[in-house]
Amino acid sequence: MAPWRGTHTCPDCNKTFTQKISLSVHRMFKHGAPRRYRCPHGTYQAPTKEYLKRHMRVHTNERQYVCPHCGKGLKTAESYRNHLVIHTGEGRFVCPVCHKAYNHKGAYHDHLRTHRPRRDYACDYCGAAFKAYKHVARHIRAVHLNDKRFVCDVCGSRHMTSFNLKGHMKKHGDLSSVPYSHVCPACHAEFRGSEGLTAHMRVVHTTVHTHTQTQTRTTPHQ
What we know:
The protein is α+β, with helices and mostly antiparallel strands. It has a domain at 148-222. The chain contains 7 helices and 15 strands. The chain has helices spanning 20-31, 49-56, 77-88, 105-113, 133-144, 162-169, 194-204; strands at residues 8-9, 16-17, 37-38, 45-46, 65-66, 73-74, 93-94, 101-102, 121-122, 129-130, 150-151, 158-159, 182-183, 190-191, 215-216.
């Protein structure tokens, strides 16, 4: 268990939180507090700027940064630099214990905690303790808020992390010839399966749409 206690109290239910952002997210998800950041392409409203920034990626398939080692496409320069470390093993921050390298300082410090026995970050809902705050946030989203934001665009299954989603995508085999033929009518995001589109509508957009409201792009026969 973590050694500290919460100092931020919810005015609606008197539950206490150790982080102000945790209280804000709690009030938005549990008590319907207004969300400040609205997506310009749909009805989605985010509790924080980071949530909105993450959400905006669903509106584009552009990946302008391509890894010269494996051909993987990345959407941002930061994710590209962080990905390169996997192949080169060279980064600005190197773990003194296992020598794993990182370009992102926050990721580096999170990694260092994995080598320590202490678990200083506790879940405000159930008391489960973790070594890094991001693991607490991931736990809360998946277990207590059922917020599995990484959606398979083929079958619609939802996953807690991008790593879990990548592992799942391997089950579908080679998808290079499968077209993105299903288009979201609200934000125009594209999907390879109707189930992926349905899950997207349920997770991203607050308004429930039926299949008759979706539009499908016709593709020419080969």
